Amino acid sequence: MLSKELIAASTRPILLSILERGENYGYALLQEIEKISAGQIVWSEGMLYPVLHRMENEGIIESFWQEAEKGRPRKYYKITEKARPIIQVEKQQWSTVNQVLKKLWKPVKPIRNST
């Protein structure tokens, strides 16, 4: 499992990347991230919905209600046009962090002492 700090930092870019693929509702977002991460990232509803609401207040996602095949209507979320450049910036930032960590985590060859 990931630390709370890493989960908090990565939630927004993960959600934007999933929603970039298409609209989705809360519970399905929880299932999708767990599936994509092979169970390494498990979010709770109590963690997810405040982030979705903040993103909605920022205008980078919007929500709408839609009837479900079974049961009650579901609240779906989708990205807005305002989100598209933000997603590109998020991708670049996380790509940079990933590249730096990969370089730092390469095995270091021991330096031979010539004495």
Quaternary: single chain
Can you summarize the main beta sheet? 3 strands, antiparallel
> Radius of gyration in whole Å, from Cα?
19 Å
Helix content: 55-70%
Total count of strands: 3
**Can you tell me the CATH architecture?**
Orthogonal Bundle
Query: Span from first to last CA?
Result: 46 Å
Question: Helix/strand/pairing class, anyone?
Answer: alpha+beta
Strand content: 5-15%
| Structural domains: how many | 1
Total DSSP helices: 4
So, the CATH homologous superfamily? Answer: Winged helix-like DNA-binding domain superfamily/Winged helix DNA-binding domain
Shape: elongated
Widest β-sheet, arrangement of strands: 1-3-2
Give the ordered list of helices and strands: HEHHEEH
Low-confidence stretches: none
> What top-tier CATH class fits best?
Mainly Alpha
User: What name does the CATH topology carry?
Assistant: Arc Repressor Mutant, subunit A
Average pLDDT over all residues: 93
Record the SSE blueprint.
Blueprint: H1 4-20, E1 24-25, H2 26-36, H3 45-58, E2 61-66, E3 74-79, H4 83-104
Antiparallel strand pairs: 1-3, 2-3
Helix pairs in contact: 1-4
How would you describe this structure to a colleague?
- The chain is α+β, with helices and mostly antiparallel strands.
- The protein has a single domain (4-104), classed as Orthogonal Bundle (Arc Repressor Mutant, subunit A).
- It contains four helices and three strands; from the N terminus they run H-E-H-H-E-E-H.
- The chain has a three-stranded antiparallel sheet with strand order 1-3-2.
- Strand 2 (61-66) and strand 3 (74-79) form a beta hairpin.
- Helix 1 crosses helix 4.
- The longest helix is centred in the C-terminal third of the chain and has 22 residues, at 83-104.
- The radius of gyration is 19 Å and the shape is elongated.
- The model has no long low-confidence stretch (mean pLDDT 93).
